């Protein structure tokens, strides 16, 4: 669908937007026209999706002829979904929980797109409003837009993208059986599933996703796809769209896709590395990448360095949203390229923050920061909102980065790590939740309702899997995200 601004749903302070009668009429008219086009293309249903606090994409569907009403008035949904655990059991927080209450899901018409992998279906991310037209406080998508707007108010923008890793099983049962047997990163794996991968690329292209590359990964049956960077809300929308397209194509080929941080207890897991670059207005009106062309480490500008330092400082707390599952800490171990230490380095795949310059000649556009310690159990909207808040705090404080690390931190002695200020990241979900609740910057950015609900859901999952073996944790998580 063609992009058209609708400020009541998109711009301004997420906490102040209120839908009025004019907004509803305008959105209904736009949706009616969109519905006519979709119906003419054979679309019969529109899936409205949001990602809950546990990282699971939830949905309500409307027939295409009801899209007009959904855009104007929303689709009812219980707020209790925000306190669902990964097994669909329910906890309660101070702000959310119980059977009472309702909110409204409104499709974002600017991101409405037919799903090539699901013929007859279209998809739109949902914006979540209370019945009075105010933005729901647990709407992570609105939080992310607010954080992007805060940076814009200071003259900065962020481009972001997620790498999506998944493992393909050739069985339909609960166990995992790798669908390809070739070596890690080997062309054999492409040959084994060439038809599947071709269909996936075609579906992503038809859905409007710009794929940068696709390759076999390290673990048995594992692949990774990288997509083009875009604005933060768009990047999170695309991450959801890519994952659901992968899932649909995989099922169509008689296989199953797992995005779990730990598919098998004795294998490496799936990451969902986040890439961020900070941009500022240039003297001649063009945007300039603050991660390149400066006097700082490896060409960073002072602003780029401060932004990266803000993320680095808050990594232990950020893990509560970026590595949010008990299974995440089975993946987040040293010497597995998962970024288990709070340090940064140039192209260092063992550092939690890998600085990527790109090839000589394209660094002005390619330089970015890769956050390696996060995975696909994360709500991408909530994660990017927290990362932007951390980076913005670094900018405000004018932080600098410590010395880069160019070795595997695990190869250093404890004394050597201490001397260089290299600390291990939390080794459990309980540790990261404690750091998250104590972090004043993230609490202010996300709000009390989100902070409390995240902590409640995380503690619920800790209790749910208390005493479970790594194999049991992997089995419980394997097919949920």
UniProtKB/TrEMBL annotation:
A Pfam family assignment: Gln-synt_C
Residue span, GS catalytic domain: 140-481
Transmembrane domains' residue ranges: none
Domain of life: Bacteria
PROSITE patterns (alphabetical): GS_CATALYTIC (PS51987)
Stretches for region Disordered: 1-20
Enzyme's top EC category: ligase
EC number: 6.3.1.2
Gene Ontology biological process terms in this record: glutamine biosynthetic process
Keywords: Ligase
GO molecular function: glutamine synthetase activity
SUPFAM superfamilies documented for this protein: Glutamine synthetase, N-terminal domain, Glutamine synthetase/guanido kinase
Family to which the UniProt record says this protein belongs: Belongs to the glutamine synthetase family.
Protein name: Glutamine synthetase
Organism this protein belongs to: Actinomadura coerulea
């Amino acid at each position: 669908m063609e992009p058209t601004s609708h400020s009541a749903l998109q711009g301004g302070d997420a906490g102040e937007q209120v839908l009025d009668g004019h907004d509803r009429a305008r959105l209904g008219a736009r949706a009616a026209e969109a519905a006519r086009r979709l119906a003419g293309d054979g679309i019969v249903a529109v899936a409205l999706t949001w990602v809950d606090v546990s990282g699971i994409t939830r949905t309500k569907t409307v027939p295409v002829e009801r899209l007009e009403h959904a855009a104007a008035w929303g689709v009812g949904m219980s707020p209790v979904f925000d306190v669902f655990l990964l097994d669909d059991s329910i906890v309660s927080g101070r702000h959310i929980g119980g059977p009472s209450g309702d909110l409204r899901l409104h499709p974002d018409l600017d991101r409405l797109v037919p799903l090539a992998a699901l013929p007859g279906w279209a998809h739109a991310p949902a914006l979540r409003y209370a019945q009075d037209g105010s933005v729901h406080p647990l709407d992570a998508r609105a939080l992310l837009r607010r954080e992007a707007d805060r940076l814009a108010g200071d003259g900065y923008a962020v481009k972001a993208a997620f790498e999506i890793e998944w493992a393909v099983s050739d069985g339909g049962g609960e166990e995992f059986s790798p669908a390809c047997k070739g070596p890690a990163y080997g062309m054999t794996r492409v040959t084994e599933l060439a038809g599947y991968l071709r269909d996936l690329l075609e579906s992503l292209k038809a859905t409007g996703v710009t794929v940068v590359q696709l390759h076999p990964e390290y673990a048995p049956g594992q692949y990774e796809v990288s997509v083009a960077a875009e604005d933060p809300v768009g990047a999170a929308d695309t991450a959801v769209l890519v994952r659901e397209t992968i899932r649909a194509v995989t099922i169509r080929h008689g296989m199953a896709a797992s995005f779990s941080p730990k598919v098998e207890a004795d294998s490496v897991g799936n990451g969902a590395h986040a890439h961020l670059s900070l941009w500022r207005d240039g003297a001649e009106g063009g945007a300039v990448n603050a991660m390149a062309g400066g006097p700082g480490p490896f060409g960073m500008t002072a602003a780029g360095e401060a932004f990266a330092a803000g993320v680095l400082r808050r990594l232990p707390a950020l893990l509560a949203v970026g590595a949010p599952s008990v299974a995440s800490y089975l993946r987040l171990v040293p010497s597995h390229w998962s970024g288990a230490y709070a340090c940064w380095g140039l192209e260092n795949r063992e550092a939690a923050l890998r600085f990527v310059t790109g090839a000589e000649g394209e660094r002005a556009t390619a330089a970015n920061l890769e956050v390696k310690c996060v995975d696909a159990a994360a709500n991408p909207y909530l994660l990017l909102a927290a990362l932007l808040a951390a980076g913005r705090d670094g900018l405000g404080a004018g932080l600098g980065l410590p010395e880069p690390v160019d070795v595997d931190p695990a190869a250093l002695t404890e004394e050597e790590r201490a001397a260089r200020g290299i600390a291990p990241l939390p080794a459990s979900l309980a540790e990261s939740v404690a750091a998250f609740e104590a972090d004043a910057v993230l609490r202010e950015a996300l709000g009390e309702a989100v902070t409390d609900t995240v902590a409640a859901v995380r503690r619920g999952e800790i209790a749910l899997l208390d005493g479970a073996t790594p194999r049991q944790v992997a089995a419980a998580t394997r097919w949920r995200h």
